[in-house]
Design a protein that fits this description.
Distance between the termini of chain B: 31 Å
Helix content of chain A: 25-40%
Number of helices of chain B: 14
Radius of gyration of chain A: 28 Å
CATH topology of the largest domain in chain A: Immunoglobulin-like
Largest interface: A-B, 63 and 83 residues
Number of strands of chain A: 17
Helix content of chain B: 40-55%
Oligomer: heterodimer
Structural class of chain A: alpha+beta
Shape of chain B: elongated
Strand content of chain B: 15-25%
Strand order of the largest sheet of chain A: 10-17-16-12-13
Strand content of chain A: 25-35%
Order of helices and strands of chain A: HEEEEEEEEHHEEEEEEEEEHHH
Number of strands of chain B: 18
Number of domains of chain B: 2
Number of helices of chain A: 6
Largest sheet of chain B: 6 strands, parallel
């Protein structure tokens, strides 16, 4: 039994508190309501002609200003044209344009309550998100001491010269070191972790040629031969890909992962890492590669 | 009753065992989730989070590190405000002066402005050379600039603070590190955390904090045995830096993305969100290049935190309230330390009182009730009385652990069942004994 935060109450008062607790908790569960003078939200952005956005409030018509507070009862009007305004009202983004104008700001709901959180938690037990989270946890526990970088271990990989190289691995423990060498001369080792199970190594300007990557998880380091080329040779039948077209890049990544062999997996990983936030197929491939 | 008391006392004595610690941790996580974003905090400092979120980051061309000119522009809109303090949650080490020139210029303006809000900047560490060694603070090109600031007594001192938190085995951020032992030259010293600096500022005791930390004797950086960490006193709060795991828990109250926004509280005569989150791109003024100070409705008497939450910030972490960007963890930590203080074990009489009550209930159930009811009722008592009590007290920073009593009831039930079976077995053997 642990009571935290000693508040120096007497035993008698504690007993009274024990008896009253359930009743008060029921009241607490009913939630609390915000007073009528609530700020409903804020103006985040006004795009286009600022004069086209007006607010009608308390019988006054005036232009709306960026970052000003909005109150219940305000009527936001946007004149015909490209102008639009983005509002944050009670944590939700609302964009008002000429098509959706006018917007009348409503009274914000009451504060969250324990009862609401309890229902939300109970519902989350059934939701898919929660299942996914648990799966990731299990994977991280089972593989955190044996992470697997998605790089070939023996044969050299050929890659296009770029300004950054991405790495995906299984398990949540990130690599301790990623170093790029050429002829045993260290070129760079300053990597960043832009996302879960994703590392990025910014590269200096590279000339085509042979390099070596050193990747360390805890005390285990492995060296991987790597060939950087201006136009790497891809297996026959590989779909072409424009670096800026996420769909084409994903088709190429999928092909390389399925039929390219380990020497071409790093190229696929680059495509997946670049686009996994924007493209559903990339997101699925990222989840598959990282073992989520 | 003796057995019940023995079970509870045994569990209490071994409560720091990993098995029980995990149960307690899960119980506290659950309670945080239940009470997240509820209640009010009239006397606590509200926050403004200026967020380099994904759309803002994409607007800026997806830079690898936060552009100094953007940060300078954001700081420029805060310099003449009445914010309680400004926390800049970016790492400026390993960046050149050429890269940070706009920011350096802004900081020079900051220190020349008499009533600029106090500033907190992040000090990161080079990893220790060995497991029993200590990190070395990384220099930044801004150090020389900020060295000229008067250390105390100024209205706008800039302070370097540590933004480090401990990861649990399941990679969740549950614990803060109030101070960081760092290696300076050949000697160790204490670097305060962001939340500790924030608390000291809240009570106007930054100088007192500095004095107390400087009084720590330290030792050689190669010495694995360092002096005991001190006990700090700030604004009537006593902070045990050397205390155990319990004192390091952050009581999270502000989730990353609440369904209906963050809770409202009375501030400057209005009901306003306790936490306001504004994307950086809203401050860049669109095409207008707005550089006017931010309004009082956003900044006055608030702690402003400038940080990143975009997808490639590398600063997204898992917490008991779900995935959260680093700046929001800082906000939760500052709020937790200010509002709830440092968690400490209960007074002994409280433990004895509640334990005795629970033992009485369990014993009475087993003596006076049929077996089914005797098994169910103690669980119901814990669920109906102790869990709601936990929720109620949690709002004022008091945690009545319900995981341990539930575990105790289960153990006690197993023991009781075992004793009944043994008694039945003995009775059966007695009835088959021809000598009987």
């Amino acid at each position: 039994m642990i009571l935290l935060h000693d508040s120096r109450r007497s035993p008698v008062r504690t007993l009274v508190a024990l008896l009253a607790a359930t009743l008060i908790t029921v009241i607490a569960l009913a939630g609390q309501s915000a007073s009528a003078a609530s700020v409903a939200g804020y103006v985040l952005d006004i795009h286009g002609d600022a004069d086209a956005v007006q607010v009608v409030y308390q019988d006054e018509v005036r232009p709306l200003n960026a970052l000003e507070p909005v109150y219940p009862g305000m009527r936001i009007e946007v004149a015909p044209g490209p102008a639009r305004v983005t509002l944050d009202i009670a944590g939700a983004r609302h964009t008002v344009s000429a098509d959706t104008s006018p917007l009348v700001v409503e009274e914000p709901g009451g504060n969250a309550s324990v009862g609401g959180n309890l229902v939300s938690w109970a519902m989350s037990l059934l939701s898919r998100d929660e299942d996914v989270l648990r799966t990731v946890g299990a994977v991280s526990r089972s593989t955190q001491h044996n992470p697997m970088p998605w790089l070939p271990t023996a044969e050299p990989s050929e890659m296009a010269i770029s300004n950054v190289m991405f790495f995906i691995w299984r398990g949540e423990a990130p690599p301790d070191a990623i170093r790029l060498y050429q002829d045993d001369a260290l070129l760079t080792d300053r990597f960043v972790l832009p996302g879960l199970q994703l590392a990025a190594l910014p590269l200096p300007p590279l000339a085509p040629g042979e390099y070596e990557l050193d990747i360390c998880f805890s005390d285990t380091c492995r060296r991987h031969p790597l060939v950087f080329a201006t136009a790497p040779e891809l297996p026959p039948g590989t779909p072409d890909a424009d670096a800026n077209d996420s769909t084409e890049a994903m088709y190429q990544a999928l092909y390389l992962l399925q039929r390219g062999g380990p020497a071409h997996w790093p190229t696929a990983v680059q495509h997946v890492s670049r686009h996994y936030r924007q493209h559903a197929l990339a997101e699925a491939l990222f989840a598959d590669i990282s073992g989520r | 009753m003796l057995v019940a008391m023995l079970v509870l006392v045994t569990l209490h004595v071994f409560q720091s065992h990993p098995l029980l610690m995990r149960q307690q941790s899960a119980g506290l996580d659950w309670l945080m989730r239940m009470t997240a974003n509820t209640g009010t905090a009239e006397h606590a400092t509200p926050y403004l989070f200026i967020d380099l979120d994904t759309p803002s980051w994409q607007t800026l061309g997806e830079p690898l590190s936060a552009p100094a000119d953007t940060l300078a522009l954001v700081l420029g809109r805060l310099i003449d405000t009445q914010a309680r303090q400004v926390v800049v949650d970016f790492d400026f080490s390993r960046r050149s002066l050429r890269d940070l020139a706009p920011l350096a210029a802004m900081l020079a303006r900051w220190q020349a402005t008499e009533h600029a809000p106090p500033l907190t900047l992040m000090r990161t560490l080079s990893p220790p050379r060995a497991p029993d060694h200590y990190g070395v603070p990384r220099d930044t090109v801004l150090d020389d600039l900020l060295q000229d600031l008067p250390e105390h007594g100024s209205s706008s001192p800039a302070v370097w603070a540590a933004p480090f938190f401990s990861l649990d085995a399941d990679h969740r951020v549950r614990r803060w590190r109030l101070v960081e032992i760092v290696c300076q030259g050949e000697h160790t010293a204490l670097l305060p955390s962001v939340q500790l600096v924030s608390l000291a500022r809240r009570h106007g005791q930054l100088a007192a904090l500095d004095t107390q930390l400087a009084a720590w004797p330290g030792a050689s950086c190669d010495d694995s045995r360092q002096p005991a960490l001190p006990t700090l006193t700030l604004g009537g709060q006593t902070l045990q830096l050397a205390d155990g795991m319990l004192a390091e828990r952050i009581l999270y109250t502000l989730p990353a993305q609440p369904d209906d926004g963050w809770f409202r509280h009375a501030h400057l005569g209005q009901q306003t969100p306790f936490l306001i989150r504004v994307p950086v791109q809203s401050l860049l003024g669109g095409l207008l290049g707005d550089t006017a100070p931010l309004g009082d409705h956003l900044t006055q008497a608030r702690t402003v935190v400038i940080g990143a939450s975009h997808v490639e910030s590398g600063d997204l972490h898992v917490t008991p309230l779900g995935e959260m960007p680093g700046p929001l963890i800082l906000i939760n930590a500052m709020h937790s330390l200010e509002r709830f203080g440092q968690i400490s074990p209960p007074a002994w009489w409280r433990t004895v009182l509640v334990t005795t009550l629970l033992v009485l209930v369990m014993s009475a159930c087993l003596v006076y009730l049929p077996p089914l009811a005797a098994n169910v009722l103690p669980v119901v008592v814990v669920a109906v009385l102790i869990v709601p009590l936990s929720m109620l007290w949690f709002r004022s920073g008091v945690w009545l652990d319900f995981a341990l009593p539930l575990f105790a009831v289960a153990v006690f039930r197993w023991l009781h069942r075992f004793r009944r079976l043994r008694a039945r077995h003995t009775q059966r053997r007695g009835s088959h004994d021809p000598a009987a």
